[in-house]
């Protein structure tokens, strides 16, 4: 059942993104940024955690999950360090994912020799 929930949750998020691409003049970059912001807002309102509990990886892997992780990290750091946590919490909470993205991006660039599209 967990796999089905993850598939449904991730699929719904992807379908919303596709609808936004098809029906609006928003660029994909703005939609992706909006997903992060929506994840932060829903997390701050206490709505995203139940979605993440239900959807599992379907909710935590997409960009809304990144926004949720940022918000959780900031909340935890503010509780522990005060206002300094506003600046450090998000980066601390998401450092592993950011580092992995950089490392794998470099590896893929070395393996596949990227170039300009023609």
Task: Indicate the topology.
Layout: H1 2-23, H2 28-44, H3 48-55, H4 57-60, H5 63-81, H6 84-112
Helix pairs in contact: 2-5, 5-6
Task: Walk me through this protein's architecture.
The longest helix has 29 residues. The chain has one domain. It is mostly helical and 118 residues long. The relative contact order is 0.11. Helix 2 crosses helix 5. The termini are far apart. The protein is globular. The mean pLDDT is 91. The chain is built from 6 helices and no strands.
List low-confidence stretches. none
Largest sheet: none
Instruction: Please report the total strand number as a whole number.
Output: 0
Q: In percent, how helical is the residue content?
A: over 70%
Silhouette: globular
Which class of secondary structure composition applies to the elements?
A: mainly alpha
Strand percentage = under 5%
State the distance separating the first and last CA atoms: 45 Å
Estimate nothing, just give the exact number of structural domains.
1
Element-level helix/strand string: HHHHHH
**Number of discrete helical segments:** 6
Radius of gyration: 16 Å
Mean pLDDT: 91
């Amino acid at each position: 059942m967990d796999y089905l929930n993850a598939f449904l949750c991730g699929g719904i998020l992807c379908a919303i993104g596709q609808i936004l691409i098809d029906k609006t003049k928003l660029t994909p970059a703005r939609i992706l940024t909006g997903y992060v912001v929506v994840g932060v807002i829903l997390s701050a309102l206490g709505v995203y955690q139940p979605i993440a509990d239900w959807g599992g990886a379907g909710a935590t892997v997409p960009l809304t999950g990144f926004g949720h992780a940022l918000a959780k990290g900031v909340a935890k750091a503010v509780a522990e360090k005060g206002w300094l946590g506003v600046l450090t919490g998000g980066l601390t909470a998401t450092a592993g994912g950011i580092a992995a993205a950089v490392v794998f991006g470099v590896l893929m660039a070395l393996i596949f020799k990227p170039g300009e599209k023609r």
